[in-house]
Design the sequence.
């Protein structure tokens, strides 16, 4: 057997194993009645800034926590911890995405039934994270106004693996001549009917709408998954 098919076989098995763990995680989250929201985007789209703001606002009214993945450093965990919510950094070394087993390990000593929301910030990457189910209830794909309206067309898989798109850094939109109708059209071309939210972590615009949105999603999921 040549090297390439073997590599393909190993990759398939890794993905299969990931799905088994993700399924177990999803069952655990459902039984614990915790709503899990993951964030994917390119590096620097504003995941941590957005999450810090969301955690700070939510921490005042419900039980929230976060996991954050990066290849190296604990920088993002330190930023998120300013919200006073419990936070854990997952450092992946050379791996360009989070995997379900990493989430399982990070949560080994956490009682998730004590949480209303758990957020997971993935490694900044528009390719690898799309293949890995983390057992989350809702996956957000962030696209910042500074990275170009064509990203959904260039990286359709990540948009297809997500449930909702969040346009970030709206405070910079006019400075970078962000063309919102084109960006929306591109998102819809890849994922027709996808819900799109707009936020600025800097000014706080759109944050209340986002919180209302996830609270509604959580209520819906609780109503449909009677445990
Ligand atoms: N003006 C403005 N800047 C922002 C906003 N959100 C994030 N930034 C800036 O964008 C840069 C990257 O933000 P991060 O929150 O670190 O982005 P990230 O997606 O978490 O980055 P990685 O974890 O490295 O992938 C930082 O300099 C932030 O201050 C925003 O809403 N407005
Ligand atoms: Mg970050």
Sequence:
């Amino acid at each position: 057997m040549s090297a390439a098919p073997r590599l393909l076989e190993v990759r398939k098995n890794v993905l299969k194993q990931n799905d088994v763990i993700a399924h177990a995680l999803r069952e655990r989250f459902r039984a614990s009645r915790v709503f899990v929201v993951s964030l994917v985007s390119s590096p620097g789209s504003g995941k941590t800034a957005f999450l810090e703001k969301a955690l700070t606002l939510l921490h005042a009214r419900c039980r929230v926590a976060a996991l954050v993945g990066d290849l190296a450093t604990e920088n993002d965990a330190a930023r998120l911890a300013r919200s006073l919510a419990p936070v854990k950094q997952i450092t992946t070394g050379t791996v360009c995405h989070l995997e379900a087993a990493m989430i399982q390990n990070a949560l080994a000593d956490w009682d998730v039934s004590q949480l209303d929301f758990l957020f997971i910030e993935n490694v900044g990457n528009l390719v690898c994270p799309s293949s890995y189910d983390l057992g989350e209830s809702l996956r957000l794909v962030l696209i910042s106004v500074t990275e170009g309206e064509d990203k959904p067309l260039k990286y359709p898989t990540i948009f297809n693996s997500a449930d909702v798109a969040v346009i970030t850094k709206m405070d910079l939109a006019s400075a970078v001549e962000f063309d919102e109708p084109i960006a929306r059209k591109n998102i819809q071309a890849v994922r027709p009917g996808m819900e799109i939210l707009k936020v600025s972590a800097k000014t706080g615009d759109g944050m209340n709408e986002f919180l209302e949105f996830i609270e509604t999603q959580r209520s819906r999921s609780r109503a449909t998954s009677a445990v």
About this structure: Residues 149 and 182 are 6 Å apart (CA to CA). Residues 47-48, 76, 121 surround magnesium ion (ligand 2) (CB under 6 Å). Helices lie at 3-32, 47-59, 75-80, 100-106, 151-154, 156-161, 180-190, 207-224. The domain at 4-226 is CATH 3.40.50.300 (Rossmann fold).
